[in-house]
Amino acid sequence: MKVHCRVENTEVLGNRKGVNLPGLVVDLPALTEKDKQDVEFGIKHDMDFIAVSFVRSAADIEAVQSFVKATMAKYWPADHPSPKLIAKIENHQVRIVLVGVTNFDEILAVADGIMVARGDLGVEIPLAQVFTCQKMMVSKTNAVGKPVIVATQMLDSMIRNPRPTRSEILDVGNAVVDGADCVMLSGEVAQGKYPVESVSTMLSIIKEGESFVARFPISPSIVTGRDSLASAAVNVAYELKAKLIVALTKDGNLARDVAKFKPSVPVMSYTPSRKVGRQLQLHRGRYPCYHHWNVVD
Length: 297
Known about the structure:
Blueprint: H1 33-44, E1 49-52, H2 58-75, E2 84-89, E3 96-97, E4 100-101, H3 104-110, E5 113-117, H4 118-124, H5 130-143, E6 148-151, H6 166-178, E7 182-184, H7 187-190, H8 195-215, H9 225-239, E8 245-248, H10 253-259, E9 267-271, H11 274-280, E10 286-290
Parallel strand pairs: 1-2, 2-5, 5-6, 6-7, 8-9, 9-10
Antiparallel strand pairs: 3-4
Helix pairs in contact: 1-2, 2-3, 6-8, 9-10
């Protein structure tokens, strides 16, 4: 496939850049042959997560899940944990609008987590809608207890400067207060002049944001009996000013239930699976501890 372009400014176009087609419905498979090779390589080496780019519907995630399941059977026993699938929301076909959502909800139902990929999303939809879409996606993902990552241009000015702008500080802080489990640096550490300063700056903003959240805890809706148990544990810890919550979990579900209620204290998650422990670290405030015993969630 060839794309012919006309240069209309004096900027420099680097190598290996993506191509966006705003407004067009691109009917491509969820996994190319190269993608399948990469996923199989990762599964063979026991990777923990797969980030699925430009997810358009639940069918895209389900296609990846099917391939992962078949590939896992080639390399691992049936009870070995599979990699978690993170849906990168960066496509106008997700149809996130101010009054609601069409297929974001179906993607959220089948994915293991969400990444708000603001770079490409800001090209695919009107720029003024990016912040409302981010807040909506974080809120909905929090409500079901799945991890949500906010990514792209969080401290973009620190690619060139040792200090962030005031608006970038607000951006990171608001993501934390809104309920993001992870905030992600990209160009700041991949090609920036101040990678260490970028990480330390983001960490200081996160700590400030979390101290604010601790004073105004998040209270999602309770829809299952397990939610009731998790909510009670978080509320008791808050009332008693506990320093730690301990969760015993085999497959991580109990720890994820507790994560839904964003407790203000760390959650020590004891699990007999090292991989489950690594995967739990994507949730805010989870500290896995490996212990080889038989635990039933």
